[in-house]
Amino acid sequence: MKKYIKGANPYMPLWEHVPDGEPRVFEHEGKKRVYVYGSHDIARTRYCGNNYVVWSAPVEDLTDWICHGVAYETHYDSMLFAPDVVKKGDTYYMYAAECCGSLVVVASSKTPWGPFENPIETKLGFDPGVLVDDDGRVYAFWGGCAAPCYIAELEDDMATIKEGTLVENPLGHSTCPWNPVDDGHISLIDAFFEASSPRKVMGKYVYIYSKRYEKPIPELGIHEPNNGFLSYRFSDSPFGPYHDGGDISFNGGEILKDAEGNGIMTYQWGNNHGSIMEVNGKWYVFYHRQTGLNEFSRQAMMEPIEVAMGTDGKLYIGDVKFLSGEPVASKPVEMTSQGPRINGLDAYSWISAGYACHIYGSRKRAYIRPEYEEREDLSTPIVDITDGTTVGFRYLQFGNNTPKTVTVVLEEAKKIKVLLRIDSYKGRIAAELDFTGKEKELTAELTTGIIGKHAVYFEFRSGDPNDTFIFDRFTFD
Predict the structure, then answer these.
(1) Of 304, 310, 305, the residue nearest 322 (C-alpha)
(2) Spatial CB neighbours of 215, under 8 Å, sequence gap ≥ 6
(3) What CATH number matches the domain at 22-331, 3.90.1150.10, 2.115.10.20, 3.40.50.720, 3.40.50.970?
(4) Per-residue model confidence as pLDDT tens digits over 346-401
(5) Which candidate, 137, 142, 345, 362, has a CA 20 to 30 Å from the CA of 80?
């Protein structure tokens, strides 16, 4: 019996909705695992929920995630926003963002999955991020939305700000509709928005954050204010000054190019939050994407990235360009369907439409429908597909033997033609599936060979421009 792909992008099960993922590698009882701490989109009609859950995977296999259950529940009958967790000594400390992030408490545990107990109120603020330095000193970073960012050193109690260490607005804050007046904290060039996450990389202090662009970025298809980025700056000191870095990830999907070379987004961008982590010798960026029609059902994503230091001391993170072995530039790494499956998704398993990183051309707003039923065979279908819509997956692995057939499953029986294209949404046609309106599942023979790793796209063609379709899953044989 065919298995369903799991541990791809999103890497947690398709029914789980954990955004704001702060990854940490902890060794506990002799085992190294990467743990992800984020808020929990269970409220469904607003951001987040009233508890935190913890997921982890062995550092040797980032496709094998397990849930450790609820690690912390609100003590204030409130929504819990983005947290962070660090270890000092033999204790794990969770910085829980109570009351929609307006009150940060620090709770503790002797295990990385909690439960985190005995919360102590702090003077930290929105989206706390914490760094335990090599010498044991602890620094907290926070801020966002209508407030600037802050940095401070903490006392040994992990809660109290050390006197005389508070630094205000080290990056400059973005303008936004709810903060339109220049109050001395505005920067429109490299605009801090929220999501502070400090890391130590190659001896540099790296400030990772969500950037809000006010200026257009035509090469990425951005023509209005946008905060779908995870960006970074770096410094030789935890307090700065912080130097320009760049953008690590952008959750707008595959970026197409028009005739003028301008970009076209193929996924519904939304707010972003996460960080970078070296796992078993390889670097990854952890971030989130949106599902549904709002930002209340986000899912955890990851991509492999490159990290390199130039001879001039500049740190490059993301999709790094090298010239004669020297890093010279970087840009956001592409958003994929494969995530930690860096050799591609197994083409011979069931692949949910919910792993798409390209949804383009719908007359309506086609989107991935959030699902919450905890099943191994759960698929999250794409709804509101219309004539001309393309749905893409980057990338699949076909191995050394070309498949003979492709099977596509719709949620409802409808009359429609589905074209399988390879490598591009306008690429060569490898199969045609003619649904008559009587069947939901159809298999067609391939007309061309496919071996190795490829992107695949499904183009939907209908004689009725007003009809809509639901794409559930597919597989090859």
Answers:
(1) 310
(2) 188
(3) 2.115.10.20
(4) 999 999 999 999 999 999 999 999 999 999 999 999 999 999 999 999 999 999 99
(5) 137
Determine the Cα angle at 138 with ends 132 and 144, to 5°.
95
Identity of the residue numbered 95: Y
99 SS3 class: helix
Q: Report yes or no on whether pTM surpasses 0.85.
A: yes
State the Cα torsion 293-299-302-303 to the nearest 10°. -20
Q: Which amino acid is at 359?
A: I
Look up tokens 């065919």; give the residue.
Answer: 2
Residues of the chain with CATH 2.60.120.260: 345-476
Whose CA is closest to 81, among 112, 109, 50?
Answer: 50
Tokens standing for residue 411: 């949620």
pLDDT of 190 strictly over 70:
no
User: How many whole angstroms separate alpha carbon 286 and alpha carbon 274?
Assistant: 5
CATH 2.60.120.260 fits 345-476, yes or no: yes
Which stretches of 31-134 are assigned E, i.e. beta strand?
31-37, 51-58, 66-73, 81-88, 91-98, 103-109, 117-121, 129-132
Residues whose CB falls within 8 Å of the CB of residue 123, separated by 6 or more in sequence, listed in order: 160, 161
CA proximity to 170, closest of 200, 135, 140: 140
Q: Residue 100 is encoded by which pair of tokens?
A: 């929609």
Could you give the dihedral angle defined by the CA atoms of residues 435, 436, 439 and 444, in that order, rounded to the nearest 10 degrees? -40
- Of 220, 370, 375, the C-alpha closest to 294 is 370
3 state DSSP class of 220? helix
Interior angle at CA 296, CA 295 and CA 300, nearest 5:
80
Q: Where in the chain is the domain with CATH 2.115.10.20?
A: 22-331
Residue among 276, 274, 326 at smallest CA distance from 298: 274
Tell me how far apart the alpha carbons of residues 249 and 242 are, in angstroms, rounded to a whole number.
19
What is residue 188's predicted lDDT score, i.e. its pLDDT?
53
Q: Bridge partners of 350?
A: 4
CA distance 270 to 170: 25
What amino acid occupies position 257?
A: K
In 306-373, which ranges are E strands?
306-309, 315-323, 326-331, 345-346, 351-352, 358-360, 367-368
Contacts of 357 (CB under 8 A, 6+ apart): 9, 253, 254, 266, 267, 335, 336, 337, 392, 393, 394
Asked if pLDDT for residue 146 goes beyond 80, the answer is no
SS3 of residue 219 by DSSP: helix
User: Which residue's structure tokens are 């919910």?
Assistant: 354
Tokens of 102: 């307006």
